[in-house]
Structures are given as C-alpha cells and as structure tokens.
Amino acid sequence: MQEKLYVYYTNDLHSNFDIWPQVTGFLKGAREKRMAENQACWLMDIGDHVDRVHPIAEAFMGKANVQLMNDAGYDLVTIGNNEGITMAHEDLYHLYDDADFQVVCANLHSMTEAEPEWLQSTVHLQSDSGIKIGVIGLTAPFNAFYELLDWHISAPFQTLEEHISKLKKSADIIILMSHLGISEDQEIARRFKAIDVIIGGHTHHLLRTGETVHNTLITAAGKHCDFAGKVVLTWDHDQKQLVDKTATVHDMTDRPRDLATEQSLHALTEKADNLLEQTVIQLQEPIDVKWFQHTTIMQKLTETLQEWTHADVSMLNAGVLLDQIPAGKVTHKDIHRICPHPINPCVVELNGAELTEAIRASMTRDFTELKLKGFGFRGEILGKMIYAGLDVHTVLREDSSEYVEAIYYNGAPLDPEKLYKVATADTFTFGRLLPEVAKSEEKHYFLPEFLRDLLAYTLHHKIAGY
C-alpha cells in the first residue's frame, strides 16, 4: 500500500501583504482538501516572512506577521535573516511567544540568556498511519550582524553533522527547512544523502518542479509569495521506504482572496498607522529630496552618519530617501515611508587610494542610475553620493558626467597610504557595488539602528521646523 504525504510551503514573503490574502486562501484550501481526503498535510514557512519595509511589520516588530501565520494555520517555520538581524535582541527573543506553530532553527543560539522557549533544533512529525518525518531548520550565518545583537549562528554543515545521524535513526523521512540559499542547499544535498527533501529560500530562487541532487529533492518558490510550493512524498508501507517525491509551485496572483485575512490586514493597518503617528517634527515648508542633486537634508543626514559612528568621513547615496518630506506634522510613519530600507550604518577602514577609487566609482552613471534590488535597498535607484568630512572637487565632462579632480580631508589631499574610517550604508559591504568597501577587512556594523533612525534624529535635531 502506498500513501501520499503533502507539504505546502512559502518562503521570502518580505511582508508583501498585498498578496497575503491569496496565499492564505490557497493554504487554507489545500489543508481543507487534504483533510477531506484523510491525507497527511503540513504547512511550512522558510523564513523572511517579516520585513520591516512594511508599516505593519515595523509597528508591531514582526508580531503581526506571526498573527497572520497563526490565522493561516502554519505548522512549522524557520527564521530568515530578516527576522534575525533587523530587530533588537529582545524583540526577536519574544517574536514567537504567541505562535501556534513550531519554530525550528538548529543553528540559532542566544548569547545572553537561555534559549527562547519557542526555539527548537529539530521537530518530529507523524502521519496517522505512523510515518515519521524528522525536520531540521537552518538559517544563514551572518554572524557579523547576529553577534552585535547577542545571537550566534553555528556553522550549518557542522550543525547538520550533529543532528542528521540522530534524525536518521528516529525518522523515516528527513526534511531540511533551509534559509541558506541555493548553492548551500546543493552542497548539503551532495554531502548529506540522508536528507530526502530540502525546502529552501533566502536567494529567492524559483524551482518550479524542483531539482534533484543525488538522492535529495531541492525546491523553493521564489520571492514575495508570488508562488507557493507543494511537495508530495509517496511512502510505500510494504517496502517501508519513500518511493517517490515531487515538487511544484502554484501561482498566487490570480487566486481568490481570503476575506478574513483581508479584514485582519485592514485592522492591522489602522493599528499600525496609530502606532506610527508620533510626531518627529512640525515643518513650515516641505523638504525637497532629489536623487541626482545635492540637497540640504541629504548633507545633514550624511553628517549625522559621520557623527553617530565617530567616523573620519561618511558617504551616503541620495536614493535612500524615496520622497520629499511634507510640510506640517512629520510622523514616524512618514519617516518609514520615505526611508523604508532595513539598512544599518557601517564603518569600514579604507586607505586613501581605496577611498579615492570608491568615490570615483560612485560618480559614474552606472552607479548613480543603478536600479538596485536587494542588499537591504528598497528604493528605486542609488542616486548621487553625498559626502561629509571630505571635500570632493569634480569637473563636468562634455557628456555631463563628473570626473574627480581632487579629494581633500581636513584641508589636505587624501594620503594614499593612510587608513580612514569611512561610514556608509551596509548595502555597500555586499556584492560589487563598491568593491573597495566590500573587500575591506575591517567592518563595524551598527545595530539595531536603521538609516531611518538617523533620519528621524537629523530632522529632530538639525532641521528648523517648529
């Protein structure tokens, strides 16, 4: 006799609540169908459900996300970096206190106190017929950030070595909930053949029918829950083994919307608006924001960044501010709308030659006009780089591009050999946007402050308004 087991999953919603009623409707419908047919079914989320880019996530510090997952009927979730490193230690420690589901993450550890009551390394599921499924969760080891928030992420492969042999003895099927990314998932599949299924996320990869590496089925459903995933496992009771496993994804965009979820989101929006209505400043006139021009607000924000971090100099791209700051009462909701990014201040050490190259790169059209998606940036384009603590002299070429003619620090030219502490957005420490910044061996991140916290401080202390 053969039996089918169903796992429905989501990953990397990033608080994209516009589509959440469709997702919830799909998940509820899937569970109802399986229950009606007396088939085993579980709902899982693979992390980055929370993203403070949305006012609801910001106002409730992720707890509204947990409420929405409770309402959808989730059984298991693991955490992503957006849950892990975008809020203070205490906020993450209590994030899942009211969860009706189990939280599985084997490599997350608190450095200050006992582990949260909700945190489990592994979980065992069992079908009515007695099939045992061992589940383990892992999240990406961004310890440069986590340890500043008094958490530690143990190495994923070492963690698996500690747990897989035990799961193999106690479970018929092993599932890994992985917020590590596609490359890591593929390597895990090569090394740990006992893992039957890896449900992934983090790198926003979409595997419409899964991918098999050795004996392991790997799957993931992209980003923002435009798709939700389904895994079907076929167990043969006579052979006492798994004989088939398939993965598919389902498009959420045209699905019916769950009315109860829409009502919940409407109520949460009103509550979030009220929570974020605290006044930061009362302005007599609006403050202009321009992505390709020098503005007073960007200059003052960049100066605040330099002062806040005690850096020698600072540099910040004008595209971090998405809209003008209106006249009248400016609230935390306005600040969040104008600067929604989960971006932290960061200080890197660069010598004068490296700093010069970074500044030159930031002047190019390829940089200023880049439509960046990712690395914490939630805006449209990077925009003009603004500096504090530096005098950057440029000349305008015939094609309207700028050329860096000279750079001065404290009235003297930059010393190519001298080390400077440079404050900037942590965005530039990733990828290849500014290679000199990314490859700096000395990086210090400031958590849990976001750039919008510095913007609120700048408006309150450096802008005449009242």
From TrEMBL:
Q: Which domain of life is it from?
A: Bacteria
Pfam family example for this protein? Metallophos
- Annotated signal peptide: none
Alphabetical list of InterPro entries matching this protein: 5'-Nucleotdase_C (IPR008334), 5'-Nucleotdase_C_sf (IPR036907), 5_nucleotidase/apyrase (IPR006179), Calcineurin-like_PHP (IPR004843), Metallo-depent_PP-like (IPR029052), Pesterase_YunD (IPR011240)
Q: Where is the 5'-Nucleotidase C-terminal domain?
A: 289-427
Q: What keywords tag this UniProt record?
A: Hydrolase, Nucleotide-binding, Signal
* Keyword Flavoprotein tagged: no
The record's CDD domains line, in alphabetical order, gives:
MPP_UshA_N_like
- Asked if Cell membrane is a keyword of the record, the answer is no
Residue ranges constituting the Calcineurin-like phosphoesterase domain according to the UniProt record: 7-205
Q: Which family does it belong to?
A: Belongs to the 5'-nucleotidase family.
Its name, as the record gives it, is Bifunctional metallophosphatase/5'-nucleotidase
List the top taxonomic levels of the source: Bacteria, Bacillati, Bacillota, Bacilli, Bacillales
